[in-house]
User: Fold this.
Amino acid sequence: MEIKNTILGLIRTLDTFVQLPSEQIYNLIVMAQNHFEIFSVFQKYMEEEEIVRDSIRSICKELEQASREIITILQGVHKPKGLSQISALCEKGREKFSNVKNLYESLKGKVPTDEFYRYHEHWRFVTQRLVFSAAFIVYLESKKLIEREEAAEFLGINDYLLHNFILNNFYSFSFTVSADPADAFHVELDDFLIGLLLLAEELTRLSLNCATYGEYHRPVEISEFVSEMNVGFRLLNLKNDLLRKKFDGLKYNLKKIEEVVYDLSIRGLIPVAKS
Assistant:
């Protein structure tokens, strides 16, 4: 009350300059103070959020560098003598993933609880490339398609959240959820699927190089693998987004691989029945 009277007293001295009642001027001052306090809270929140984003960006830059190093190593399979060094190249690639695991652990600590999707865009694309690298290693070693759990292990994200999805509009599959419900840091489904589509692009290139270097049986194996992948993706009801656009490119990759197999078969370089 005393503060109000003091303010009103000061305002009355300005009556000759301000053509407003003293009480109304006081209310405007109080309102301005309230607005200042409200927006000060907003400003503090924005500053704190920017600090979090900066720390996340810093880790993501290191992840991108690690991803480039892994991809560079795996590109060795496309060299003339690369096919004979697959085991060594895959081992080197796996060793590089140890650093990736540490970085994802640091990233997990920076992301506030239950705000995974708020910051997900920062590491979305690098995760897709790392999933691709992991899938490429698994294929080169065993000629099998990587599973999402295995991809999560490569990245050190053992606690992953797998959403329900519908196949062919009839069958609904529910996969195991993280053991810790509070831990929502996971390999996003779209990121995993795009990583697989990137694998198909890389295998298209590999099939061409294998034919060039005389490894005629590999294009046939790649053709069967990508064909089965194509069938699997066709079961998914994909929307018109980045994943859908990537999937549209899969049929063109498969066509290129089949053309390689066809050229090898008409030249008698592989058995017709096998092709």
The two ends are 93 Å apart (CA to CA).
